[in-house]
Amino acid sequence: MGSAAVRDRMLAAGQRITRQRDEVVDALERARRPLAAREICDAVAESNPDVGRATVFRTLHALAAAGIVQRVTLAGGRPGYLLCEAEGHHHHLVCTSCGRTIDLPESAVTPFLTGVEEAHGFTVDHSSFDVHGRCASCR
Amino acid sequence: MGSAAVRDRMLAAGQRITRQRDEVVDALERARRPLAAREICDAVAESNPDVGRATVFRTLHALAAAGIVQRVTLAGGRPGYLLCEAEGHHHHLVCTSCGRTIDLPESAVTPFLTGVEEAHGFTVDHSSFDVHGRCASCR
DNA sequence: TGTATAGTGATACACTGTCTCAGTTTCGGG
DNA sequence: CCCGAAACTGAGACAGTGTATCACTATACA
Lengths: 139, 139
Description:
The structure is a homodimer. The first copy, chain A, is α+β, with helices and mostly antiparallel strands. The first copy, chain A, is built from five helices and five strands. Helices cover 44% and strands 24% of the residues of chain A. Chains A and B meet through helix 5 and strand 5 of A and helix 5 and strand 5 of B.
């Protein structure tokens, strides 16, 4: 079952708690790393084979809208989904060795983006960074 | 036919010039904006219906390896391919209004990445930024 | 011009993601 | 506690992305 914290965030976002959504959150909580859509479907099917693929994708969309999950780009360009502890918009460093992620708060990025906006007369609506490398413990 | 500059860059990368590759480059040069794989297939098929889908993907891969094309993320998370004037590793600002892109040289990004590395004990192997917003002339 | 080798087309396969529609479940108010 | 509006679900069809194989072909270079 998904943690109480996640539940509260979903309710706060006006979304309902369902068995199916619980199982998606569960799979992500157990993994502690970004999962491909396929991996999530498989993990969910293990505890409940009757959950449809469409529901998994809808759930991921809903969780992303609530800021609970973030879609990231894995090494190789494949998309993955990551459960975020941090609330609000933020970015991630993805370790190519152990697969774990490090949160990068928006505040660490804002000065850089502001500089870019000023240099090019560009207004940033949305940004996402894919930074792959090795974390401190994998070097 | 792809420009001579692109031809030289492909030869320099040890790749052969073929009719099919020329047509992929052509499609991207005409568009002057990132294209979805499907759009490239359609554009190529218009001038030569016998070019296989697999060849288009292989060509995009080869062009990306030579730094001639970059895979970017379009609004909505869909992948797109962009012909790059600039050589070497760099990033792009994508205008959500007119679809055009602005090159962001690696040198504009390095100080930011260095700061991130120092703050988190992380070694960056590869980074790609998706920055969406409005360019100066679309505001 | 000849030839080693890179490139090609067809086809099959796997994954990602969206849509529709009838039926079900949840949440909040009474 | 029960009810109903509205959100959610499952099945299945569909479309795009991307990779692999294998026999065949075209290119670059000596």
